[in-house]
Amino acid sequence: MSICSPLLLLVQFASLAVLVITSRVPVAEAEGIAQHTVAGLASAECEAIVRRQAPELREGELRKVAAVCNGVPLIALLVGDSLAHGRLTVEVS
Questions:
Q1: What is the mean pLDDT of the chain?
Q2: Three-class SS of residue 38?
Q3: 74 versus 34: which is more confidently predicted?
Q4: Claim to verify: residue 28 and residue 51 sit in the same structural domain
Q5: What's this model's pTM, rounded to 2 decimal places?
């Protein structure tokens, strides 16, 4: 079963709902599914998201974390939150 099969079922039976799916890889095109390619964040934008979540990071740590997030806003939010709550730590070599 391809990934489109479950998506098509959702689209067909959820006419009153809006479903947003994000993916790092393109999803096969199918009728009823609109696709939008979104560019990654610039390094400064990613750093700003992480900084809001984890303001205690030093500049070197912040740059390293933003680079690891690779411009993906959701990753920056989750990593920043995990750093702020002690679920992750940063090691700068």
A1: 83
A2: coil
A3: 74
A4: no
A5: 0.66
Greater confidence (76 vs 21) lies with 76
Could you tell me how many residues make up the chain?
A: 93
What's the Cα-to-Cα distance from 29 to each of 19, 20, 34, 49, rounded to whole Å? 16, 15, 8, 31
Torsion of CA 54, 56, 62, 66, to 10 degrees: 0
- Residue 50 in contact with residue 57, Cβ under 8 Å? yes
Query: What is the domain count for the chain?
Result: 2
Q: Specify the amino acid at residue 48.
A: A
**5's tokens:** 């099969």
- In sequence order, the 6+-apart residues with CB closer than 8 A to the CB of 39 are 71
Do 3 and 31 belong to one domain? yes
pLDDT higher than threshold 70 for residue 44: yes
Question: What percent of the chain shows pLDDT beyond 70?
Answer: 74
- CB-CB neighbours of 79 under 10 Å: 23
